[in-house]
Amino acid sequence: MAYIFSLHTITQAGKNLTTAFYSAPANNSYYLGCSGGGRQGVKAAEMFPEDFNGIVVGAPAVNFNNMTSWRASFFDKTGAPSSPNFIPASAWEGFIHDEVLNQCDMIDGVADGIIEDPTLCDFRPEALICSGQNSTNCLSGVQVEIVRSVLSPLYGSSEELVYPAMQPGSEVQAVQRLYSGTPFPYSLVCMTLLLKISA
What is the value of pTM for the model shown? Predict the structure, then answer.
């Protein structure tokens, strides 16, 4: 929590310096932060709502512990690149993304390659399954279930929600890290620590 008090102190100091330098207070004060900085923005709004006239928060990582578990779950879903059902980046960025747009781009009535509200997209990956007419740019049944799992929320052992689902349309960016077939670095650190403790 010390970071939020530091932000508050720096903000007050900045306003005082501005007033001293310009002989007048600043008209407005804004904050912009992403990831950890986004988390600071959320806490600033909660604890010191008078500090800023506006706060822009990006990817705030508010639920960091569950987000770490969620992030680590993708390797178990996708498997390693050497696994027989691994879906390569070219498929995610190519025909899988094309099918997502085919099913959901027109939800807003405009075919522009943008899914205006991904929460309205009920993507059905079974449309990608290989059949007699379609044997290229398609997926096996197992791979279809991988796509379904990747785009589903993560639930805990008691069926409690751990983290919401990836949104359809995000696959073009997510494939570089989340679906790359490599373990999440934090997971490797935790595994190394557990192995040292148990040794």
Answer: 0.73
